[in-house]
Amino acid sequence: MVTNSYIVETLEITAKLMELHDADEFRIRAYTNAVFYIDKYTGDLATLDFGQLTQIQGVGKMMAGKILEIVSSGTLKELQELLANTPEGVIDMFKIKGIGVKKIKVLWKEVGIDNINDLQIACENGSLANTKGFGGKTQESILQSIAFLNSQTGKLRMDKAQALAEVIQEDLKKYFARVEISGEVRRKNEIVESLLFLVSNADTHAGGFFGGLPESFVEDPKASSPFTWRGRYLDNKIGLEIKWVATYQFLHKQFIYSADANHLKRKNEKGQTLLKVSKTDGLASEEEVYEKYGIPYIIPEMREGDFAFDWIQTRKNEDLVSWESLKGIMHNHSTYSDGRHSLEQMATYCQELGFEYLGIADHSQSAQYASGLLITKVQQQHAEIEQLNKKLNASGGKPFKILKGIESDILGDGSLDYPDEVLASFDYIVASIHSNLNMTEPRANERLVRAIENPYTTILGHPTGRLLLSRQGYPIDYKLIIDACAANGVIIEINASPYRLDLDWRWIQYALEKGVMLSINPDAHEMEGYHDMHYGVAVARKGGLTTDMTFNALSLADMEAYLAKRKGR
DNA sequence: GCCGTTTTCGGCCCGACTGTTTTCAGTCG
């Protein structure tokens, strides 16, 4: 079934190509305008008929027909024609940050550059700066963006990697008796550079193990060897590695390919490494590997580097945060700002999932692109929350509460986005940076610390603003920021969106040492977004976060007590 | 191409930032 985001992306690229090919400016605007509204549509577009589609703002008779065409055929005839008349390299250039359709049009039609490689050369030899509208700084930023792009190709975010790995696993199961996902996916890395599978047959083959794989597995014969197949799956750019393992070796191989090198080579008191111990004959489980090595079991997520060896000395695996230990959801959006579902829908679904509270934190007034809340809207939302809180508890049962929050923009000077009397009307405040992301480290630190020192700040939202594989985020001094949070009793968010996973899990231990609590926040813009907390939990466990230091593992009563005490200071 | 009417066609749009400009165009969230 065609998803809403697929329809949006199809119309978006069509609009871009139309602009590239000199279509009427207002016709193009109609496309982007329609995209703007259908992106907000909460139902399934694929299920709507012509009449229902034209009810959507920005969608007229023509656009409704286009959407139906995408739903039935998977594409647009118009788009196919545009694509046929555009070099592939030009389309690739859309991925470069900082240049848009207009500049790409100049590059292609006036300068004659139709691929990223030629563009890079023109920037490196400085010739691009001679073109009107381009200068030295633009050249520099294009080069930086290309370098970033190159460093990201062939990598996947954990959500995509996990999904693809499961598809491949199912496919491989047709050919092998046993197929296990190993490597980075099993370790729950936030970015995955290669997919690794271990396979074995019921009996050993004489003539090669991978001969029967179908065409969806594209082998690179130069990189492969008799026991290791290397290549790609369909047109995915990420590297794929399949290792054939004899049945009796499976445990040992699964163990060493699930951990990273630093984890395997750390020595115990007897001078043995885990790598060596795992080879011992007769071991039946990974638990036994650690037992024989002389320490408690370490979960696969934590087999990155060697911090887990120290962690396990003072903590237990049962102390690690889990989905089941979460009691509420703290950072969520509704239709009051840029969310797809109403306050009531968000609350009802949260209650259905068994949580005790929902923190609504819509965007604040300066975030106009996201329909941030003007003060009157804030008051209106608070009134609705109070009504809903009565309604949702009317039938008795487990108490449930919507908490009045806001995701306040951190303004350029580090202040929050409302006057004090409005800030005081919230139960809690998530403070995040959304604008002016181009900052030097000192400037970013100063801006963040000022926000952290604001007595109304409860949680620091996505501390670096990074978007994995697409935006680096502004540079910060992690220790300085975490220390400031410790000094001011501010909680740090682990934004659980697979695009962010920010705070980076590598800083969880430092935060815990300083006594800073962390909150696993989905930043949900729709009901299903709550499930992103699974990614947040995965990286939180990877970094060794314990339930007792997880903010949204507090019960409703403890959360209310905390927020009341915090407000009273 | 869509919308909202001045119902048959004219106007359409969000603001901050950046870089390349000598007063503005392009990009982005």
UniProtKB/TrEMBL annotation:
Polymerase/histidinol phosphatase N-terminal domain span: 328-412
Entry keyword annotation includes Nuclease: yes
Keyword Hydrolase in annotation: yes
Cited InterPro entries: DNA-dir_DNA_pol_X (IPR002054), DNA_pol_lamdba_lyase_dom_sf (IPR027421), HHH_MUS81 (IPR010996), PHP_dom (IPR004013), PHP_phosphatase (IPR050243), Pol/His_phosphatase_N (IPR003141), Pol/histidinol_Pase-like (IPR016195), PolX-like (IPR022311)
Domain (DNA-directed DNA polymerase X) ranges: 2-304
Keywords: Exonuclease, Hydrolase, Nuclease
Name of this protein: DNA polymerase/3'-5' exonuclease PolX
Organism: Emticicia agri
